[in-house]
Design brief:
The protein is an all-alpha fold and 110 residues long. 80% of the residues lie in helices and 0% in strands. The longest helix is centred in the middle third of the chain and has 30 residues. 13% of the residues are buried.
Length: 110
């Protein structure tokens, strides 16, 4: 049973690292501020949640005598799901209001 849980935890961690890495690639490869922020906002949120979910599962099955830590990790997942998209939206709106122009197909890449 413990081996199966460890494999599931490794899958969660690997998927989280994959999405974080994908966000980095999007940050480096996409042409303008808005698409870069969109890529990093989506990928970082999912990557962080998957990593924390893996840690939550690991802690549940390896340290069952401390039940408060998984509850804290669950609250952290909920906070990330709420805060990251809200912050990304606020940053994009502030950039739009200050005059940062979106990239168009004919524009040269930055």
């Amino acid at each position: 049973m413990v081996e199966i849980i460890e494999i599931i935890v490794m899958i969660f961690l690997a998927a989280g690292i994959f999405f974080m890495f994908t966000g980095v690639v999007g940050l480096l490869r996409l042409p303008d501020f808005y698409t870069r922020l969109h890529a990093t906002g989506k990928c970082d949120t999912l990557g962080e949640v998957l990593i924390i979910a893996g840690l939550l599962l690991y802690h549940l099955f390896h340290y069952p005598e401390t039940p408060l830590v998984p509850v804290k990790l669950l609250f952290l997942i909920i906070f990330i799901f709420l805060a990251n998209p809200t912050a990304t939206h606020a940053i994009m709106k502030a950039a739009y209001n200050t005059g940062v122009k979106p990239w168009k197909k004919g524009d040269a890449r930055m």
